[in-house]
Batch of 4 targets.
Target 1
Amino acid sequence: MIFKRTHLFKLGQAPLKRKLIITYMIMTVIPLGILGYITYAQNTKAIEEQVGEYIPRLLNQANKNIENELTLLNDLPNAVYNSKEIMSILRSTPYKEKSAFLQEQYTVESFLANNYLNSNQSDILAAFLITNNGNYISTKTSFKGMNFDDAILPFGEIHDLAGETPIILPNKTKIAFEKDTPFILLVNELTDFENRESLGSLIFAVDVTFIEKILNDIDKEGRATMWLMDENGYIIYHPDKMRIGQVDEGLAGYPLVNGSFHTTHTKENVLYSMNQSTNKHWILVHSIPMKYLTERTDIVKNYTLSIFLILTIVSTMISIFIAWTVTKPIKQLGKVMKEVEEGNLHVTISPTNKDEVGQLAESFQSMLEQLRILIRKNYEVELQQRNAQIYALQSQINPHFMYNTLETIGAVIEEEDSETAVDMVEILGQMLRYSLSSSENLVLLQTELTHIKNYLKLQKIRFEDRVNYEIVGENHLPIYYSPKFILQPIIENIFKYGMKQRKVLIISIEISVEDGKLKIVIKDNGPGIDKEMLQKIKKNLNKQDYFTRESGVGLTNVHARIKMLFSDKYGITIESKQSIGTTVTILLPLIQDPYMVFENRLEGGRENGEN
């Protein structure tokens, strides 16, 4: 374990070029090898499954063909029952003249030859009729070993093939035909249906080549081995004549008798397919070495191995070249970064390819440019902030508003309404204190609202019933901070343009929190702004020169300070319709700690840099 960790540590400390080569080899050679192996295994498995499903269907059809052949053989004794002459001979007494016996023998053997040997049943080699009256033989070819002296059926063990006609296997009899023709003996008992007495046995020697003909249609190439056996494993037919009559010792170990399976118990992998006849008395077996099924797959495998070796060599060369092309610009980029680390922000990077490393170099170059811009911008922002503060202080109390307020106070004093005059002087004093109280940019929102309430109270005293206002939502908000003097310039504009054309001026201030932002909406029922002037005001809001004395300067001043303090996501939007009114919306971040402003400015700077 320690050895493995040591090697992994050394690999981790290895140069990037070596890592790329090793990684490329791992990502190409190993997956190709695995893919090739999986493809070969899956193809072999697919072939095995297809053959395993297809062959049993062929065997089932072959079984049906064999059953049909045997059904025809089962019907052969009917010819004997239908012949009155033969039945008369079988029912006669065994004691008769030799000439009569010879005559009957000629008649019976001629009957057997004409009905069985010379008929369409070309697979019958011989017919033996064994009775109490005598034994009759008719054969196509010479044979030996048939001896009727010892017993009527001196053939050995009898097997029931299809539940109707017993079968005698060749190894259980001494009969041998010329040229060692393979055969089976079918034994049919003849019964006199009038008295239910046995008349004898009709035995047919059937050439098993009829089974071979049926099975040859399945394997025309001769690569498979097929044989027929009964349910106990006794082999009825096998291409190897020596196996006929033997017992298939592997039957007990076969996992199924209907379907396919393969075994590796032998020297080679063999696929077995088996099908048992519908009457479940014999089993047809098909076996073929897997090498014949996967011949083409093996050819593909050999080609794949050759291609794999070629690709391994080519991929190794490519990996070395790619590693060199990747690490070279990275080394150059590293040298430039080292210079930046030492304080040189004015370095330049030579143009590279448009790959990931090239994009990284461009991003680094862009980052340097943004860094230089941010440094310059921070300086300019600080300068503009100071100018904005000066401008804001100069604009906080409009001299015209001051003059009108003092004039109103004088008129109230002349009317001897001293209480109202005292209130106005007190409100004016609070406003002056708020204006001169602090140089901080952020104040409590409630303090800003108190200031604007004082402003509106003075205007209410001045214009009396011509002014109505309401502030909604101020009591349902937690403690938030806002920039100073963001409401008075907007309210001043309302009075400047609204009082001239409205008998009653209605002002609404709604405060709410939406989508994680503080939203202040100021509405009025003033004369509204025409489309041309509205577009000009919106255009001025987006100007960088915040301190010009153009139309909408109050809005521009407020919008500029909000953007400088926070980011372009916040500020003022204005909508207006002539003869209906104007709506000004202020969006601010939710600030409960004034020190968060600096972090918001940094975030805004990063977003601007990315854009």
Target 2
Amino acid sequence: MTAQLHYKLDNPYAHRQREIIRKIALEAQALPLLDSGLWFHDDVRNNFYYASYLFAAAVEDSMLLEEEREQARHKAEAVLLETVLLQNRQPGTRLYGHWPLGLSPLPREAAPHELPAEIMGSLLVWFCKHYNCLLSAALRVALHTATGHIYRSGYFRKEVVHYGHHEAKYTAAKLIFGQLFGDEVLRADGIASLEQTLEHIRAKGMPEYGSLPWFWHWVQAFTCAWELEADSRVRALLGEMLDCLWEVRADFYLRGAWVGAHSRGWPHDVPADRNVLHDYVQFGDFPLTGSMPRTEYAGFLFYEAPAQARETALNRREPVEVKKLTQKVNPDDSQEQPLLHSYAYITDTYAAGGLWERVEEFDNEQLRWAYSLPVSGEGEVNRLYFFHPGEGYRTGDPRHQSPYMEVLYHKGTVLTLFPVPEGTDDTVIGVLPIGEWLEQEQALYGLVRGVYFSVWLSDTYQLTRRADYLEVTASGMPGGVVVEALTGDEAADQGIGSLAEFAAVISALKPAFVVESGGGQTVEYTALSGDLLRLEAGIDKRPVTAINGNIVSLADYKV
């Protein structure tokens, strides 16, 4: 699609991209500039993204009013120029070719940082290619000069070791800048890195499982390279990579929600799925919210997911169990490469699931398990989960879990035990989406967007209303939590037509929590289906998980 901009085509994807472009452009147009001549000082990239969208809208005939277009174009070009000129343009200095990340208090005095160029450098090449003839002479020269500095910095000349988002962006940049500057050695390195990465993901899965927002950097980097690529063979290889990425996304997709476990999650991803623009363009089966916390280039870049991936994502008429295997990467070959097992149960109205294993992830951002509801047009919290707070946790930011949790997943039910050592804070935190909730001493029964939830705790709890969710705090661990969900159709089949009726039925199934004097603990629960679930855990004990007396096997999990 290098010959024309995708968003100018006449198809549903392009229509949704134009909607994004226009929304962001109007926001940028109305946003006052700071004294620096920029909109944002928190992240230099946001100025580049917003200015790109405002410029794109200004040079179109239908996105802005005719009398506003010229002023909008000048504003966009001014911000782009100011942003580009923040690059370190001094060869031989540290982080030559890079931009600062945070810009406060004075952008022109901010030190360069290694992160912005990773994605922004490649996107800048894309922007130059598609809008070069429409740019002012000063901005055209500045942009082309900046790409030269990026190429000569060589920041992307690194081996693939971790198979993470940084290396994905380096690989794409090798192809993009190698082609732009006729560097066949760099091109060959990029092709080899691409083949190596694709082979690894196909054989061992993505080590960055559910990594948000970084998965979208994978998608954008390789889509950018695919759109710019002139060699049909390399472009086909990039297409294979993008097919693989969208298949990964489709497996854990439910109307804008990314269900199950996450290795990373920023506040705009947890506890609510709000970073959804790429999903919106690709699938379009949920309403676009007014708030778009991470715009990036979702309105510009596009690669159509394979038909099978789209069918998987969009057809949730029948419940499905997803069982995926991935292998974490440890560059030190002397250490074992951990195998991780990810489970999800996905219906048409909710999903449940998570990772069987606890893993220490970057910044301790792992979200071990959660229930997910489809994304709404209001940006509401759409997850339900519990955890014991760990390193990095702050009140009001329900992320950063401790290692003291064991789990059992079975369709719409999750059993959780918290073997918290003596002397450790014994309080667990729960997140409940806003809805209708009935409170009992050690239980909550809820009806949220047509889905019924039962939540049992081993001890009493307190309920606090946060801005966009309900927070449960329960002390007295070791102990646990049991959650079961029921779709509205399943409830109707059992003669349940209200939350009160659901509570009356489900309250009879109260789980049995047992904490032994030696620190071991057990929970048993008979689900609405009649299945008997049992989880045993302890501080120095391997967990035991059983369904109807049979030990849970993970042998059928596949990459």
Target 3
Amino acid sequence: MIDWSWELLAEPERIVLRRLAVQVDGCTLEAAEAVCGGEDVAARDVLDLLARLVDRSLVVAVERVGGHRYRLLESVAEYCREKLREAGDTEPVRRHRRHYRELAERAGPHLYTADQQGWLDLLDTERGNLRSALTGVIRDAAENRAGAKDAALRFASSLAWYWFLRGRLREGMRQLGAALDATAPDGGETEPVPGAVRAVALAWQAGFTVLSGDAADDGPRRRAAQALDRGDDEPADRARARWFLGFIECDFGDLSVSEELVGAALAAFDGLGDRWGTAAALGTRAKHAMVRGDLASLRRDGERSAALFRDIGDRWGYLQATDSLGNLAEIAGRYEEATELHWTGLRTAQELGLWSEVSSRLSWLGRVAMLTGEFEQARELHERAIRLAREHSFKPGEIFGEMGLGIAARKAGKLEMAETHLRRVLDWMPQERSGLGNTLPLALILPELGFIAEARGETRAALALHLEGLDVARQLAGDPRGVVIALVGLAGVHAQLGRHRDAARLLGAAAEAGEATNAPPAPAERGDIERITAKVRGALGDRAYRDAYADGRRADLDELRSVAGDLPSQP
């Protein structure tokens, strides 16, 4: 039947129909003109020829916002691809790759603006064409076709932010990896790829690898950072790639490395007048301040970032900034404000289809629910966050959700369930305890496991866990809130051992550490403190408790740590 219809077509109609088969899942009129037009058919005639083919039911026209979209039924498309091969007509394939590469490169800058939503939707619609075109360009690069190596890396990098925003991390990792492999230097290049182009692609691929769950090997991140430091061509692209590595490093690498990368990127952004980059770097600095317990800097940088992103119109960026401000509200015990900020962020992320962000916001809401004693709601929110994170291979979201489930279960007295969730996160952590990203979750997980062991009467296990938690928080993560939690946990162990004076000193040290960072535990986080304090005060009496507590506030933390770890052979 298709063959019979084909025979009835005029030659220009046949040319347009077979060339249309190059498109994946249809195309716009602009794309049809770019790909189907050529020496045999003028681009201005393509619309009329498409209309005739629609009348003959060989092409389907679907009305969309902004114009019609033209596609072939699969049986017709397969027939036309065969006709294209028979005709030896390869130019439409090259034009298809060029058209969608140019679309991706044109769309890239708009993803950082108030037009973000519309361009995300456009790239979603053209996802099949973009994938097909990029795969073809990478194949050309592997075959050393003229200009293809540079084109493949630029094409892949121009889609990186789209993949990130949409949570298509594994797709991005695969495509960037394929582009890098196809363009790897072999010493015989006649058209060497500019250094910045390869360095930027390396940075994106290293970051996606971490976000997809492989944070153990920091080699790719280090090599990408070193590549970005070699040369000064394309400074704007280098600066954004350097910021992205710092953004990733903040959660999964070394905090000091993240601060160095983001600081260098911020200086470059200021010099370039890149307001988006400045806003992004300030937002990441706010995260650094949160980890360091510097609440004044957290507020300052978070508010500056939010103001810039609001002015630019980038809703993803504004989400990041308000995320930090929501965390600040939660730390201060302003749970209604934190809930409002996170719910607003959740709705925005859902509207934009930013599913990784949706997962994160669900977990933050779950944490606030846990802090306010709504344990069932906390469980439901964290489970939703985990399911969504798994669907999009977003490992940070999965970890955050598991941690939330574990902490909420422990506070609800469900010790076995709590340990199961917390051990899952611990199993994901590399055995080498180094670098912030590998240790920041530990500063929360280890004390929680310590409290579980204490509740079971497993004193020595609890002691070991709290001591390691203290060391992680102090030496590796630089997390003052983690220090407070570990000291409270150690106080609980010593109270259980009957060493009540040492327990009181540890409680005093915990209070001093919290106040030193202007972030003492909020009322909803004081359950363990109040439980242990009541036990110790009851054993010592008020006066002896106050004296030991005051002594702990003045004590050297290294000395306290040494005493806390010195137990008799038989507890």
Target 4
Amino acid sequence: MNEHTNHTGPGRRSLLQAAVVVPAAGAAASVAGAGTADAAPRTGTGTRGGRFDEDSPRFSVAVLPDTQYLFDADSADPEPLRATFRYLASERGEANIAFMTHLGDITEHGTEDEIELAADTFRSLHGKVPYSVLAGNHDIASGDDQRGDSAYLRAFGPRRFRPMPTFGGASPDGYNSYHVLRAAGREWLVLALDWRASDKGLAWAQGVLDAHPTCPAILTTHDIAAAGDDGEAHLSGNGQRLWDSIIRGNDQIFLALGGHYWPPGRTVLTNDAGHDVHVHITNYQDRYYGGAGMIRLYAFDLVRDTIDVQTFAPWFLARDPRKRTPLEAENLELTGSTDRFSLDIDFARRFEGFAPVVPPKPRPAHRVMPRGTVAYWRFDADGPSGAGRPGSPVPAGTVVRDLTGNGNDLAVRLLHDSAADVVTWSADHHDGQPAHASLRFDGGKAPDRGAVLTTKSTAPLNSSKFRSGFTIETFIKLPDPFEGDHAWMGILSWEGRNGDAGKTTGWSEDEPTCSLNVSPERFLQFVLYPDVQDADPTSWSHTLPVGRWTHIAVVNDGRRTVMYVDGSKIARNPAQPATGIETLGKPFVIGGTQFAEKFGQGFYGWIGDTRIVERALSPKDFMRRVR
């Protein structure tokens, strides 16, 4: 092994973990199982530390490298590792920890005594967090996975893992195993390969991959790569063999983890499918107290398409900060570029070669009209009269039906001297939108142009007051690049002027009594002049992204208004009372406000399904479907 040390100083982020000590518990598993053993039902729950949420798009995998110096003959001290396991059990619910994987070299000499002490220490995880282990060169005498019986195999062979809900099976020799995790609503494969997998072992591993063709896979082994002080990793001799024989040709393997060498390092290789494979070395045995049971936490975030990685020692974390020694404080958390970093991975695109995302089918209108729905419009074949092919203009006068049957149909009207293609049909849509269609608006200034869709003068929606509350929802997408001056463009509104309603609080008497707009900073602005109060409570969002669909919901419970963006409540919602909408019997508008006609600004971008419900809905009842 090389002898370089990777010391780190203060980092850019502080560790936000809090170690909660829980009693060690659990018994050793004693059920025999090798080959392709059947797994127990995957419940996704733990008995301590909170419930693991297998459907959350955010979950963590803990990685534990070489612990050999904690199990070294008569100098053994398992307490740091016990603290790590207490941490994983107690934080399982908070960090949504799906699994823990050990990278080999559990012990220093692989003796019966060392192995048994380690096996007893690992028992504290049983029933709390599922895990895998594999043999490192210090755990066995010699040879590859065909070496036969060993103290390691008797303690850490398939019998230990069979009761775990994730365990899938082991190779006939017992030294290689696999687990299937259910996390983020899908299955993930973890391969745990002996430090020297034989040809038979690799053939078995290929069979596991073939049997799980749609599972993204994490390959773990002891020896795969080494790095210098610059943190740049390079495949070792054994790593090159694994790369050539099983990694590069199996697109499922996107992450390969090993220990053995220090300092830590990482690299990105390109497989035969042209996709990235992240290769990481994780080993802290050279640090104070043999690494003190230090773990690396891989936090998967499928919303942000990111894996955030951090490295810390729960044993030191659990100590009173006032009593930590200098070395304990120095090794509490590692913040160098090889120990704390983020990986940007477009998971859907990375996995599409073997597990393409099947887009959801459109939902029929009747399934998205809950009690109290007063209007619902969509722009596929169900909604408009004479819907055209994508990219073709929407003619003036086109009627978009209110699918509730309440008579709030919309008609297209072009503003100013706008060209016919200022509004066009589009197949673009939010993934969670009921209809798979939208309208593309090309409103703007210089020259003034745009199009709006308005209810007729006798539509019931024009005179609705909504004093018991309301939920207004829509989907929009702003173009990328977002070019031109589109400040204060309207998304939807009622045409009534607040001045005509006798309101005295607005900045202009021409402002609509209710409108959803986009500011010059691309903030959403929802302005409401209530039916009851003389006020103009206004909600403001953060900056909207471009080139990406956004779901917007404005909810009023008869007392105050709250805006949600993509299902999340925004910060700047007014506390002012707001009861009802002062609609003044004026038409409802999509694609702008009366300002569009007066000052020239029509909407610029896409608008999808829009729904109005005469009561307050909770986020779980929004139109936006979450996978």
